[in-house]
Amino acid sequence: MRRRAGLSSLGRNAKGGAVTFVQRFGDALNLNVHFHMLALDGVYTEDNDSFLRFHTVGSPSDKEVLRVAGHILRRVEKLMARKDFMPGDLETKQNDQPFLTELYAAAVSGRVLSGLRAGQQTARVGDLENHGNGETSSPLCVNVNGVGLHANTVIPAHDRMRLERMCRYMGRPPIAIERLKPLADGRLLYRLKKQWRDGTNKIIFSPLELMERLAALVPAPRFNMIRYSGVLAPSASWRRRIIPKEDISEEIETEMKEGKTVKKISQSRPRRYAWAELLKRVFAVDALKCNKCGNTMRILCAVNPPEAIRKILDCLGLPSRPPPIPPALIRYEYE
């Protein structure tokens, strides 16, 4: 059992930290801005010897989660009032990009913006007769006037695999290709991850409707989708003392000096993953795996001159010229 530390006794010197992922999409590719926060389950303090200590806190109670959700609701209402922006103003609020405002409004409400079905709701498919009625409540999960707060996920210390899976979930893209299926009539069927309360488990888009949804999910330029706060902030004074140091790899090089072999040790810090390792981690594709023997391939040489590359490809019977690019097709729609 973890003992709850008395945060009030730690004073203002106590500092927490969190990483917040901003997500703009819902399960049905609708515009639903929400936040996933990965927070430390404790705070750091500095003693008289300038040593940082971590104080673990216990799990919050349902009343504490409810109080935090209410506090968020009041802060959001004050912000909207200060910006002169109240619920229902999304379609009437004027800005320098009126089409983008209409696109956002349609993506929030689940409507079609253009085409033959403009103004209608997105087509839904599901088992409307055998669906469940009633909401299931989870511990440490509340909803206060539309502000939902879920605080029931805890990752044990040193569980790096589960932490990586959580980070992958928080930073995932809006659309899952494996759940998208083309239909015989040209439309696209998108399967939901979980069935809705009304029994909907699939959404049907036309190609233009899907492009509208994806365009609404694109964030604004130069908008950071990952935010670091507290001791994890980039400018935090304690950040360098908390973040683990990178592993230093030593490379031994030999060189001849005055007829003697001298060993030279160079230290390098791996700051980034190699491109092949990134492909393997993100897409589960091992680009360096040989298709014949299954072993890892290695680079023998790099050929840069275009003429040499063309001769090698011609010798191997491979195409040495890129395929021609067909002209773009323009489709006009008349109402």
General description of the model:
The protein has 335 residues and is an alpha+beta fold. The chain has a domain at 247-322. The chain is 24% helix and 23% strand. The chain contains 8 helices and 13 strands. It has helices spanning 7-10, 62-82, 98-109, 160-170, 207-216, 239-242, 275-283, 306-316, and strands at 17-25, 31-39, 42-46, 52-56, 123-126, 141-144, 147-150, 180-182, 188-191, 200-205, 226-230, 249-257, 260-268. Strand 8 and strand 9 (188-191) form a beta hairpin. Helix 3 (98-109) crosses helix 5. The radius of gyration is 28 Å and the shape is globular.
Set out the fold topology.
Blueprint: H1 7-10, E1 17-25, E2 31-39, E3 42-46, E4 52-56, H2 62-82, H3 98-109, E5 123-126, E6 141-144, E7 147-150, H4 160-170, E8 180-182, E9 188-191, E10 200-205, H5 207-216, E11 226-230, H6 239-242, E12 249-257, E13 260-268, H7 275-283, H8 306-316
Antiparallel strand pairs: 1-2, 1-11, 3-4, 5-10, 6-7, 8-9, 9-10, 12-13
Labels describing this entry:
335 residues, alpha+beta, disordered N terminus, 23% strand, 13 strands
In short, what is this structure?
With 335 residues, the chain is of the alpha+beta class. 24% of the residues lie in helices and 23% in strands.
Largest sheet: 4 strands, antiparallel
Shape: globular
The value of Rg in angstroms is 28 Å
Task: Please give the share of residues in helix.
Answer: 10-25%
How many helices does DSSP assign?
8
Total number of beta strands: 13
Straight-line distance between termini: 67 Å
The parts where pLDDT drops under 50 for at least 5 residues are 1-5
**How much beta, percentage-wise?**
15-25%
Q: List the strand order in the largest sheet.
A: 5-10-9-8
